[in-house]
């Protein structure tokens, strides 16, 4: 890892005075830039609650296959789709794998009570019934795991917060083949939907995808065209390759891969993991068991910085555990959330707070309120300069490619003219990711353009006499992961079939937008607000920009006279995401008027259709 990763300035810009802290916030029209994911469970699977979560700001829904059946998760996802239609808000879907996680088997119906100081044996014999004296685990053998006298073992409730008395810390006293005799360090009652086992410093050799994961991806994931797969206990880049092969084999080439770093092996191999993944999740629950408490912040800051420099979205878990049972976070938790934003986290992923918590909607509102306050204190200029230093842009030999140069130029231009908004046109979302990498102070309104093959297929599906396909009705069409490959395909099309982002000066150009998958995937990028046009709604060239600006004006993102930066890339068979033809334009809101009146209801609006997720379903 580059030595410059270890050094970066603080990105905190303090308020003018203590008195200013007490002032009422005035600008509430723009949502928080930081993204918010929720683990859906028993408390958050009804249509009513899901609607409230979407309205509160949830942008990512996690379906954790460490527990529950495919039928259970399908019912939850179906309810989420109804909630999206009712609220007209998009939500990214994430399948979280079980991976090589170790669980307790053969549990009795009643909870298991343990007392501090008693002896408890862990065994790999799967025929044994779990009791207060022995716990069978799902791992095949303890041989070669490094388990030895003195090793620390954690057995806890799924999504353990630390405040429950439902988990136990064990110290290994003796290892006998595939049995480990341990001493309980605390009293507890083992209960909950699932009990997980975490052995500190263990090298887990199990496959990165369990058999249940393979079935979930190939059946549930493929049927629902899931947006992201979160890979639990990612150990190296090879794990990422395995998952991508599985996704490609079942028609999920457009699905992106999120690496969960939650053990020592993942931390030590984080460089190659970040490079091989589309995004990263720092799972602080399990990682906190591997690391000493006083070392946790070092790993966190190091990992977030590495992801920021690579331009890979990074999310963090375990932030307001207290709100699982209380309506307010602790002061330390509120400060922790703020520091994550200041350290460059793109999003927060809630676990027990929304899975089984008593206040899921209030938790989302509280966390995003803290995030927005933190963003107001985020020193975007210092952050931008730190990336420029890393790329050597202040030296005679900068290491900045064309795509990076154009993206950074758009952000720099927005800062210089104090732009209220950056508008980005993208096909796969990669251009939006590059602009978001520099974390501008201005929100990034992203217009997702369509691949002509997809648009044609989409229109055929919608008007086919055979009826409307279910997957397109809920906004889950396919898309290429690699924008370069997409553009190479376009180069082979006829000129009138090529994808062209709107050119402000080009009148009479006919084109369409689609890309609901790509739009949802953009919901992982900090500061990005994706919109798209209905493929049935043809517009003359440049008109879509007017629609986008008018939309931003009506929802309060911009006002008359505000400056806007537009990042455009005309696509006529070029070989890269942004080539020399890519431009950054500076415009004024008053210069663009929407061609026809359209009413807007929410920040994630599909232009051209007031109800895009329900249209043409019959």
Automatic annotation (TrEMBL):
Residues 458-472 have a biased composition (Basic and acidic residues). Residues 34-364 form the Pyruvate kinase barrel domain. Belongs to the pyruvate kinase family. Its cofactor is K(+). It catalyses: pyruvate + ATP = phosphoenolpyruvate + ADP + H(+). It comes from the Eukaryota. Residues 404-573 form the Pyruvate kinase C-terminal domain. It comes from Volvox reticuliferus. Pfam families: PK, PK_C. This is Pyruvate kinase. Keywords: ATP-binding, Glycolysis, Kinase, Magnesium, Metal-binding, Nucleotide-binding, Pyruvate, Transferase. Its EC number is 2.7.1.40. Residues 458-481 are annotated as: Disordered. Pathway: Carbohydrate degradation; glycolysis; pyruvate from D-glyceraldehyde 3-phosphate: step 5/5. InterPro entries: Pyr_Knase, Pyrv/PenolPyrv_kinase-like_dom, Pyrv_kinase-like_dom_sf, Pyrv_Knase_brl, Pyrv_Knase_C, Pyrv_Knase_C_sf, Pyrv_Knase_insert_dom_sf. One of its GO terms (molecular function) is ATP binding.
